[in-house]
Amino acid sequence: MEGEDGGGGVDWDSLAEAASGAVGALVSTTVLYPLDTCKTKFQADVQTDHGGHKYRNLSDVFWEAIKKKQFLSLYQGLKTKNIQSFISQFVYFYGYSYFKRVYLEKSGAKSIGTKANLLIAAAAGACTVVVTQPLDTASSRMQTSAFGKSKGLRATLAEGTWLEAFDGLGISLMLTCNPSIQYTVFDQLKHKLIQRQKRKAESAGDSTPVALSAFSAFLLGAISKSVATILTYPLIRCKVMIQAADPDDDDEDESERPGHSRPPKTMLGAMCAMWHNEGIPGFFKGIHAQILKTVLSSALLLMIKEKISKFTWISLLALRRYLFVSQKRIKSA
């Protein structure tokens, strides 16, 4: 099935990939959002010079929401996060699919090697980061605000300058290696698994098209994201600390947070704060929560994307035919 038609040169293959990825991101983000809020608040909490922590365990965040009767505040910033997730995954999958197709056409190769795959994924990731960074910053500030005190998207971004909306952009660009590693590992494992299933089907005389099962897609997504998360976690925590809401503006009870200090706004400042107050363990504080959340999120995303890709393509095919017929009618009128 060709990726382009005669109707305006739209890359329908890339569009189908982008739509499937965006829908998958929307569902996984919504399902796991309370865990994401707990994880983000836990990561943003830095030990003070006096050795004080507001949260000693991930569960402390959850119980704080229950204690203050603010359970729904675990969903603060969900709308912004969903907008960011939908746009970022759409841009990423569209860019990745588009760059991949262009590379294969220009190089004449039948498949993409690991190095080329990493470069393509990094280019798609960089485009995504630049487009969605203000939304990413706003959602982080909303999540790290005191429970019940989160503001709307416009009010959150209006609190600082336009440049502050891009806090952590440098780290976000560096973190483009995360999805690069993830999707490269996923694609390579998927390719090997599909090839193995094809060989088994051929030996059994079965001509049924081979496709990943939901469990296989989930498992491959979990493995690929675990590898990427472990390798890039110190940068992930730095970004959360840089984008976190100012505690002085949020906490109702200052006694709950010993030694208030404003979060660092540079990567060097975040690194120094972690090293000075928490030592080497600080670079990996909350990594268990990060792996749990990101593995589940990415696995769900890829599983949903694999399962709805066919439906998405059929829907876009119907749209393409409708647009093509409409153009013919306009021309004949």
What does this structure look like?
With about 325 residues, this protein is mainly α. Helix content is about 70%, strand content about 0%. The chain has helices at about 10-30, 35-45, 60-65, 80-105, 115-145, 155-160, 170-175, 175-205, 215-245, 245-250, 265-280, 285-330. The longest helix has about 45 residues, at about 285-330. The model is unreliable at about 1-5 and about 255-260 (pLDDT under 50).
Please specify the SSE layout and strand pairing.
Elements: H1 12-31, H2 33-44, H3 58-67, H4 78-107, H5 114-144, H6 153-158, H7 169-174, H8 177-203, H9 214-243, H10 247-250, H11 267-278, H12 287-332
Number of helices: 12
The largest sheet is:
none
Task: Look at the helices and sheets and give the structural class.
Answer: mainly alpha
Q: What is the tally of beta strands?
A: 0
Secondary structure: helix percent? over 70%
What's the gyration radius in Å? 22 Å
Q: What's the order of the H and E elements?
A: HHHHHHHHHHHH
Range of strand content: under 5%
General form:
globular
**Assembly form of the protein:** single chain
**Terminal-residue CA separation:** 30 Å
Features:
single chain; about 325 residues; mainly alpha; about 70% helix; about 0% strand; globular; disordered N terminus
Quick recap:
With 333 residues, the protein is an all-alpha fold. It has helices spanning 12-31, 33-44, 58-67, 78-107, 114-144, 153-158, 169-174, 177-203, 214-243, 247-250, 267-278, 287-332. The longest helix has 46 residues, at 287-332.
